[in-house]
Amino acid sequence: MTSLTDLTLADARDGLRAKKFSAAELARAHVDAMIAARPLNAFITETPVIAKAMADESDKRIARGDARPLEGLPLAIKDLFCTKGVRTTAASHILEPFVPTYESTVTQKLWDAGAVMLGKVNLDEFAMGSSNETSYFGPVENPWRKPGDNRSRVPGGSSGGSAAAVSARFALAATGTDTGGSIRQPAAFCGIVGIKPTYGRCSRWGIVAFASSLDQAGPMTRTVKDAAIMLRSMCGFDPKDSTSVDMAVPDFEKALTGNIKGLKVGIPEEYRIDGMPKEIESIWTKGAEWLKAAGAILKPVKLPLTKYALPTYYIVAPAECSSNLARYDGVRFGLREKGEDLTAMYEGTRGAGFGREVRRRILIGTYVLSAGYYDAYYLKAQRVRALIAADFANAFKEVDVLLAPTAPSSAFARGEKTADPIAMYLNDVFTVPASLAGLPGISVPAGLSADGLPLGLQLIGRAYDEETVLRTAGVLEQAAQFTARPQTWWKQ
Asked: d(Cα 125, Cα 208) in Å, to the nearest integer?
């Protein structure tokens, strides 16, 4: 019999409805797996008591024939989503004692759909990072390791805890947030599926802000079907979020028809960067061949401003970060350091509360927003951002989706890039353009590197056309037949 923790979200849903097992049994199995996986440091706050209570309520509903879409399914929640009565830290010392009195819109939608909360998972501090090494609570371990090499690998960031929990099978699925690739890149590093929906599809209300014009919530799962199921419950208009789009939410699961005959797939030439590893080029070529074999039409497309996406992002995002993080001053909530006067208290609190990477981005952001530099940097970056979005709009006049690598490498060793921020930022080279344009993007596991580590392929679609992105991703997933899984070295 398949272990309960090996089930996909869809299989667990169907099994619960068929009463093959109870929600309490499913929750207990995942809580036990979560405890056994503590060496991965994926969770900041575990909530087994809450999980049991929610599972018991789900069993009552199932018995009454009143099951909701995600009834009884155990999820991990990125510790950036405010959860009422449960500590929410954003992986930062400055929010270490913060317990919200309200629930984020996305998590409320998940609980209203019947999901069960296992706990809050680790991330890069305030979602600022590409490796999950900036967390105040310590780095997350990627469950994958190179065979014969015991060095720790990063799970990617910022949603590294979410990716590790799903990959190591102690959560059926998890929430993530994506500002410049923070769902897609860790999904690729950990061999799972991660989708960033169109900006505005999921409410940002109650999510600790990093860069407000970029942040977007999305699901991280083990299959494309699971992503479609979970995304439907996460989406929807929210009047509390001024950027939330008021449009109907499709049944994304029904979009997975497996038919992409005649679909036009663009291959962006500018994504072939200098120094790209051969295995990344190879898996990209293979992915294109898989889609062509399924009936898609391949077409080269040009996105000429792609080379400016990364520098544009690292002006816009730190600028918004500088503005958003100004609220953490030790006065209203979170950490408070003593000081001789108000200014000393501010300085002491922010100096002690923010980690090195967060301080770096605040300083960059404050600089580009300052008098004399606003026009030269921030305003120019916003203009380039609009041109990058126009590039995508032109490409989508000719094609239906774009295919590209998700990341420029497989998961690298912990500590390998921490001394060089620029090398770390380059991990976002393939994910940032779609984020700047607000477009939906998904990462699908496509194979293993020569080192036996997962490699992902990315599909980017038109705004609000997650259905085509998911349909194409389902075909890609079927062709890739990715069945590899990490060895459970953490249990030894």
From this structure: 11
What range defines the domain where residue 240 resides?
4-263+398-491
Report the alpha-carbon distance of residue 158 to residue 87 in Å, rounded: 19
* Torsion angle, alpha carbons of 464, 465, 471, 472, to 10: -110
Write down the catalytic residue from 22, 78, 130, 233.
78
Nearest CA to 476 among 213, 192, 258, 197? 258
Please report, for the domain that includes residue 109, its CATH number.
3.90.1300.10
**Residue 52 within a domain:** yes
Residue 130 is among the residues annotated as catalytic for this protein: no
Its pTM stands at 0.96
Q: Taking the C-alpha atoms of 7, 13, 14 and 16 in order, what is their torsion angle to the nearest 10 degrees?
A: 100
Marked catalytic residue, from 22, 104, 135, 182: 182
* pLDDT reported for residue 275: 84
- 223 has pLDDT over 90: yes
Q: Is 182 a catalytic residue?
A: yes
106-145: pLDDT as tens digits: 999 999 999 999 999 999 999 999 999 999 999 999 999 9
- Cis ω for the linkage preceding 22 (within 30 of 0): no
Amino acid 99: pLDDT: 97
Query: Is 131 contained in some domain?
Result: yes
What rounded mean pLDDT belongs to the chain?
Answer: 96
Residue 28 inside a domain? The answer is: yes
CA distances for 259 relative to 222, 295, 297, 456, 475, angstroms: 21, 8, 13, 21, 8
Number of domains, the chain: 1
For residue 247, the tally of other CB atoms under 10 A from its CB is: 13
Question: Is 78 among the domain residues?
Answer: yes
Q: What is the dihedral sign for C-alpha 295, 299, 305, 310?
A: positive
Catalytic residue among 104, 130, 135, 158: 158
The model's pLDDT over 52-66, given as tens digits with 9 standing for 90+, comes to 999 999 999 999 999
- pLDDT tens for 325-357 read 999 998 888 899 999 999 999 999 999 999 999
Catalytic site includes residue 78: yes
